[in-house]
Design goal:
By secondary structure, the chain is α/β, with parallel strands linked by helices. The protein contains 19 helices and 15 strands. The N and C termini lie far apart (60 Å). One of its GO terms (cellular component) is cytosol.
Length: 412
């Protein structure tokens, strides 16, 4: 059992999957604060719930007095991480990378305190973009074994499926290793944290730093988080669950956590909230209808970390009004439909599709036939119903799919 407060709590919360030398890392943390980093490749202009475990690890490091470093992959994004992917990522432009980095920095500031040097934001483009290829080969290439790189599980899986692995992608591990050494030189970073799919890359960085700097550094990975039903964390029918309000309304973020499966409640409370571990276990043990109260607490606490306590409580109150009172409220997500279109009238199945509650007209019709579609809290029985501006209530239509998905349609 680790003795350092960070490792004890991280282990109790289920945030640790592997560590290169847990005993030595524990001793280093007991000796004083360390600096640790996690990398974020800017493949989108916001982080999402799938990134939440890495973010929570950085938050926990900061809570226990260590200094977290968030590394933007401005350089490595020009290649794209091939780990456990079936095919190469599409290359993105420098302009897109810069735009995405700005959005990811905003995302991270929602979770981590970067004031007064308590945490650092860095960009590996600052050093990778300046590298001479020949200098890199001479300095770093000699320390990498091709046979060892081919033994990494992420590479083996790609090759076993007879999917091509380009020379461009093969360099990714070398550049990530270079990042670890560079951050050790610049900021004294001694720990890299990342998802379990990064194990091979992390170990390579540790080995490079040991060989060239004669220093011991560490790697720690977090588990791959899937739901009890096997779905990948953070994914839904509508796509990724983004952490920025510009990408996903706060109410929908709250609702994502509220829809957690019963079997995941305790685990997610431990991983994605700041509640004491004992309280997470108590809430997770609730049964029957009481587990829904635990889900509401999970939703509010997780949303408070991301968007602030006030916004989280407002989302919880919105949910209470919508689900318990059947009220339409301005806090619900909205879509606009041309006023002229509503004046003329349009079929309900098409409106459900336009509002994003169905991916096609056929799916909308099936939703109606199954009794799962409602307009202004009234079940829709006629799939050919024509909706017009005369159906507006307080200037909007409230559309519902099942009990948990609601949206307001307003004329534009």
């Amino acid at each position: 059992m680790p003795q350092s407060p960070f490792l004890r709590e991280a282990q109790a919360r289920g945030l640790i999957f592997q560590c290169t030398d847990l005993e030595a890392l524990d001793a280093a943390m007991l000796a004083g604060p360390i600096t640790a980093y996690a990398g974020f490749d800017p493949t989108a202009d916001s982080l999402h719930v799938g990134n939440a475990v890495s973010i929570m690890i950085l938050r926990l490091l900061q809570k226990h007095g260590h200094r977290p470093v968030a590394l933007m992959g401005g350089g490595t994004a020009r290649i794209g991480d091939p780990s456990f992917r079936d095919e190469a990522r599409s290359l993105i432009t420098a302009e897109t990378i810069a735009h995405n980095i700005a959005g990811i920095e905003k995302s991270l500031r929602q979770f981590i305190d970067f004031s007064d040097g308590k945490a650092l934001l860095t960009n590996n483009g600052d050093w990778l973009n300046k590298l001479s290829y020949l200098d890199l080969l001479q300095d770093v290439g000699v320390h990498f074994s091709i046979s060892r790189m081919l033994s990494f599980e992420s590479v083996k899986q790609r090759l076993d499926r007879e999917q091509g692995l380009t020379f461009l992608e093969f360099n990714y591990s070398i550049l990530q290793s270079y990042d670890f050494r560079e951050l050790n030189r610049r900021e004294g970073v001694t720990l890299q944290v990342g998802g379990s799919d990064q194990w091979g890359n992390i170990v390579s960085g540790i080995d490079l730093t040991r060989r060239t700097e004669s220093k011991q550094v560490f790697g720690l990975t977090t588990p791959l988080v899937t739901t009890a039903s096997g779905a990948k964390m953070g994914k839904s029918a509508g796509g990724a669950t983004w952490v920025r309000e510009e990408k996903l309304p706060i109410f929908e973020y709250w609702q994502f956590w509220r829809n957690t499966e019963d079997a995941d409640v305790e685990r997610f409370l431990k991983m994605f909230t700041d509640l004491p571990v004992e309280e997470c276990e108590r809430l997770g043990a609730l049964e029957g209808a009481a587990i829904n109260d635990a889900k509401k607490i999970l939703a509010t606490e997780a949303t408070a970390i991301c968007h602030g306590r006030s916004a989280a409580e407002e989302a919880a109150e919105t949910a209470r009004r919508v689900f318990e009172q059947g009220a339409a409220t301005a806090a619900l997500p909205e879509v606009n439909v041309a006023a002229a279109t509503l004046d003329e009238g349009l079929p309900i199945f098409r409106l459900l599709q336009d509002a994003g509650l169905a991916t096609s007209g056929g799916e909308a019709r099936r939703l109606i036939r199954g009794g799962g579609a409602r307009i202004n809290d009234v079940v829709i029985s006629d799939e050919n119903l024509v909706v017009s501006s005369q159906d507006l209530q307080n200037g909007a239509l409230k559309l519902s799919s099942g009990k948990k998905k609601h949206i307001l349609v307003r004329p534009a």
